Write a sequence for this structure.
């Protein structure tokens, strides 16, 4: 039990430090605000201004699609034991915002993530039981266990399946 508390505390400290570093690196520089409005355009355009601009010689390439998040369901521990049941998620890629993502069971139980930032190379524990959310520990507040051996857990971002896991 003491080892679990130490590991959880160390993990929480690591994730909070990584999150603060990520936020500090990502903070944009302040932008100057113009004090005067831009000048009004001429009432009558000259003949050169009335002509449409020629198309660019090299049109810009389309943006590549967003990279698929590298989030996986690492483990589901103690299925069937509400007070101990936990889903361990691992983020092996870039920092991801999980807002609106869902984790569901085959029997229709569904957890919807709130405003959760999942830092790169970290873990989040989702407990079935009740508790107070922290950056690394989330609580589903279910009255009974939601996982059974053989269940397939599905982590989804909208209609896109991000990860699945078969409970052992």
């Amino acid at each position: 039990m003491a080892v679990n508390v130490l590991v959880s505390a160390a993990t929480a400290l690591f994730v909070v430090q990584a999150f603060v570093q990520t936020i500090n690196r990502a903070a944009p520089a302040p932008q100057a605000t113009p004090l005067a409005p831009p000048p009004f355009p001429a009432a009558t355009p000259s003949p050169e201004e009335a002509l449409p601009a020629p198309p660019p010689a090299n049109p810009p390439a389309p943006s590549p699609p967003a990279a698929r998040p590298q989030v996986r369901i690492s483990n589901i521990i103690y299925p069937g034991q509400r007070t101990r049941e936990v889903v361990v998620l691992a983020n092996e890629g870039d920092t991801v915002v999980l807002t609106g993502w869902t984790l569901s069971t085959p029997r229709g139980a569904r957890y919807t993530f709130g405003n959760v930032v999942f830092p790169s190379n970290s873990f989040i524990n989702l407990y079935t039981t009740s508790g107070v959310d922290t950056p690394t520990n989330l609580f589903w507040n279910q009255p009974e266990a939601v996982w059974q051996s053989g269940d397939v857990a599905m982590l989804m971002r909208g209609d896109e399946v991000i990860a699945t896991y078969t409970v052992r």
User: Anything to note?
Assistant: Residues 2-7 have pLDDT under 50 and may be disordered. The first helix runs from residue 2 to 26. The longest strand covers residues 71-77.
